[in-house]
């Protein structure tokens, strides 16, 4: 960790590129009323590489296109230069109609896609919706808020109405509430 120091016989001052804080809150305002707020019990920022590390009951609130998205994790890292947020620990992502529980996650900005949420080893559950989605799981779930699209990849299982779909890849349109695509799928009816 880079640092500078100054000392004389009476005083020792250390200048560090790391700033530590307690009960912290980080807020970022984007275009078109986009906003993100991250809170935690403790954290630090590295001024050299522009990374923020948050620990202890981390909660993120993201407002995109007028919709609220909530993320909860034990720790998060934010790369301010690359505009990404990640966690290598269990996380819970809440949206109005569903929740995703995952072993790790990444939030990134894609030039043509806007914000993308990526969840590894994830489970999807309906929490308060009239949607036909009941639940699902996959090695990787990607959520594209700007397109209301969920992509599930790798050992994907998806429960819709009274059927179960097992597939390598599933694409689901949340706005239209319908399955768009499944690759190498097996469908089991009348569950």
Report what the structure shows.
This protein has 191 residues and is mostly beta strands. It has two domains: 75 residues, Sandwich (lipopolysaccharide transport protein A fold), CATH 2.60.450.10; 91 residues, lipopolysaccharide transport protein A fold (Sandwich), CATH 2.60.450. It is built from no helices and 16 strands. The chain is elongated. The N terminus is likely disordered.
User: Sheet with the most strands?
Assistant: 6 strands, antiparallel, barrel
Examine the coordinates and then state which fold CATH places here, giving the name of the CATH topology of the largest domain. lipopolysaccharide transport protein A fold
Low-confidence stretches: 1-14
CATH top-level class of the largest domain: Mainly Beta
Mind sketching the topology for me?
Layout: E1 3-7, E2 12-16, E3 18-29, E4 35-46, E5 51-64, E6 67-79, E7 84-87, E8 91-94, E9 98-102, E10 104-110, E11 114-126, E12 133-144, E13 149-160, E14 163-173, E15 178-183, E16 186-189
Antiparallel strand pairs: 1-2, 3-4, 4-5, 5-6, 6-7, 6-8, 7-10, 8-9, 9-11, 10-11, 11-12, 12-13, 13-14, 14-15, 14-16
Compact overview of the structure:
The chain is mainly beta.
Which descriptors would you attach to this protein?
lipopolysaccharide transport protein A fold; 2 domains; 191 residues; disordered N terminus; 6-stranded antiparallel barrel; 16 strands; mainly beta; two-stranded antiparallel sheet
């Amino acid at each position: 960790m880079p640092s500078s120091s100054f000392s004389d016989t009476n005083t020792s001052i250390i200048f560090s590129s790391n700033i530590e804080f307690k009960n912290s809150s980080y807020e970022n305002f984007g275009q078109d009323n986009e906003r993100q707020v991250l809170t935690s019990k403790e954290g630090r920022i590295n001024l050299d590489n522009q990374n923020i590390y948050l620990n202890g009951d981390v909660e993120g609130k993201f407002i995109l296109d007028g919709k609220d998205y909530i993320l909860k994790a034990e720790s998060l890292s934010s790369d301010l230069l690359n505009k990404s947020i990640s966690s290598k620990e269990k996380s819970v992502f809440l949206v109005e109609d569903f929740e995703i529980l995952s072993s790790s996650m990444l939030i990134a900005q894609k030039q043509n896609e806007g914000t993308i949420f990526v969840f590894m080893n994830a489970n999807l559950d309906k929490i308060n919706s009239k949607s036909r989605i009941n639940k699902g799981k996959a090695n990787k779930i990607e959520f594209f808020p700007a397109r209301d699209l969920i992509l599930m990849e790798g050992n994907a299982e998806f429960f819709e109405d009274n059927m179960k779909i097992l597939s390598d890849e599933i694409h689901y349109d949340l706005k239209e509430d319908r399955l768009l695509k499944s690759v190498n799928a097996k469908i089991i009816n009348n569950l």
